[in-house]
Write a structure and sequence with these properties.
Blueprint lengths: L5 E5 H15 L3 E5 L1 H5 L3 H8 L4 E4 L2 H10 L4 E4 L6 H9 L2 E5 L2 H9 L8 E4 L14 H9 L8 E4 L12 H13 L6 E2 L3 H6 L7 E4 L23 E13 L4 E2 L5 E2 L4 E6 L16 E4 L2 E6 L7 E4 L11 E5 L5 H7 L4 H6 L6 E5 L2
Helix pairs in contact: 1-3, 3-4
The structure holds pyridoxal-5'-phosphate (PLP).
Amino acid sequence: MSRAATATIHLGALRHNLERARSLAGRSRVMAVVKADAYGHGLERAYRALRDADAFGVASVQDGQRLRAAGARQRIVVLSGVHEAGELAAARRLKLEPVIHHREQVDLLERDDDPQPLSVWVKIDTGMHRLGFDPDEIPSVAERLAALPALAGRVAWMTHFAASDEPEKPITAAQIAAFERATAGRGGERSLANSAGLVAFPAAHADWVRVGGLLYGVSAFADRVGTDLGFRPAMSLATRLISIKQVARGERIGYAGSFECPTDMEVGIAAIGYGDGYPRHAGPASVVHIDGHAAPVLGRVSMDLVAVDVGRVPSARVGSKVLLWGPELPVERVAAAAGTIGYDLICGVTRRVLFVDDDA
Ligand SMILES: *Cc1c(COP(=O)(O)O)cnc(C)c1O
């Protein structure tokens, strides 16, 4: 028998979330960001639910190729760009739109003598200091790109927010202003907002919003989960109890005996662990759900197993379903108890977990 750990992907939630993103985006178009295998949901599966997106954003040419093979005909932006001539040629053949964020990539475009048209997105570093040109480099980059006939009328502008999930911080307004200065008077489409920007900075919706996390129902805001914002969780991670035993007061549970039973306890063992992507750093506030009741995680999470307190779950039996996260137990809360973010957990479900489509 295979292991019980199952990730159910709610395709209806993905569809709903795309519509919700659209309604928040108003007249701006929605680029569905599907990097990291659609945030761990499976690229081809997510594509089937998100096929009405106005465009897709991927991390690599290879993922763009997978989307084309799945049937995607809309625009596809390669967010990390292309890094050598072969990749540029593949991008062009597949009609992918690379992000240009570094002078090396402008050099690559200048050396390229293929006259076929190519659309590119120039990324401006307005304060995140990860990828992108400094705003004062933009005039010379724009001039170099304008001299390339294959790119004529096909240069778009983008930037990425560092802290749009913390709207009280002044940096996002500064980033918006820097972007406006750098692109003033230049033709071409513009894109600034990610999921948090979609919600918190309507003034930055521009031509395209690039939405990842919220399409999967996951919020980046510390104080609000996806459902608070009208989105639905697209993944449920579940398994079964494979043991229940009584453990006496004073005994310790799991590796290093980090949990000592304060009373006699009824301890359930769920067939899931960090080898499946359940966080090893699940802290003392972590819970799972069994038949709608919260059951606290006890001691260290091991590779294949998690111990939970089933003392308040009268219906718990060997074979009971255990929910690790899903609509009734937001992954953002599970992540917070483990010292990380929901994005990290949904991206980290491993290959040995069985993925099942829920088409409802
Ligand atoms: C990942 C990514 C996004 C999407 O961010 P979310 O917070 O998941 O919405 C948007 N733009 C770029 C450049 C990205 O890398």
